Amino acid sequence: MDTEKTAAIATPFHVRDCALITLATGVRAISLRELAEGARRVELGSIYHHFWGRLLQPMFDEPEYNNDFASWAYWALHDKTAAERLSMIDPTEYGDIEELRQVLVDTIEARLDESGQLIWAPADSQFHFLQSQIVVLPTQHSVAEPGELAGLLPTLPAGSIYYHFIDARRRTAASLDDFSAWLSESPGDHAALLDRLGGIDPFFSSLQYIREMLAQVFHEHYAGGAR
After folding, report:
1. Residue 2: is its pLDDT beyond 70?
2. What would the pLDDT profile of 160-201 be if each residue is shown by its tens digit?
């Protein structure tokens, strides 16, 4: 057996947790036009934060719109059309954050051209462009075999799901979640399991729902006797 492959197989999966430290950028917007201008100026990390970071923010109910730009357009500007169009932007469809930024700006500008009027948010409802720094935390959990994840996944905190299933896509060469990347290096035929993991939408879901889906996929796969 290939030495490098053997080493990769022997590497256990170490579960991490994470938290986000939110930082101000100093860039604000009070209208759609200023939102587009701000989106052009801020660092890419801010665009990423407003699409993905909200998943780790505590919420008392399910958000009506799935990114901060769409939510602000609806709640501060009362522009439901802009909110719905911004909410339809799926960041998983774009190869990098720069491309996502351009789609965001184009969507806002198309709405501005269409509406022909400039709506201003109240002074106390400005959009504040933020960015975040991830803090990675160790946990006591580690698994040697993929099947062990079936029992472990339901117990993992939301931060672990975010780190391994969301943030991992920025860290892995093939833009995979950590579970899929690890399975790809594990012995055995995991094609069916990888296919099901690839079908879990990482964006239009809460971290709690993603955790439930991951646990279900692993449980059903290994309950059938797969290894």
Report:
1. no
2. 999 999 999 988 878 899 999 999 988 889 999 999 999 999
Co-location of 8 and 25 in the same domain: no
178 and 115 together in one domain: no
User: Residue 48: which domain range?
Assistant: 20-131
pLDDT value at residue 8? 45
Q: What is the 3-state secondary structure (H, E, C) of the chain?
A: CCHHHHHHHHCCEEEEEEEEEEEEEEEEECEHHHHHHHHHHCCHHHHHHHHHHHHHCCCCCCCCCCCHHHHHHHHCCCCHHHHHHHHCCCHHHCCCHHHHHHHHHHHHHHHHHHHCCCCECCHHHCEEEEEEEEEEEEEEEEECCHHHHHHHHHHCCHHHHHHHHHHHHHHCCCCCCHHHHHHHCCCCCCHHHHHHHHCCCCCCCCHHHHHHHHHHHHHHHHHCCCC
Same domain? For 200 and 157 the reply is yes
Question: What pLDDT, in 10s, does the model give residues 28-57?
Answer: 999 999 999 999 999 999 999 999 998 887
Structural domains in the chain (count): 2
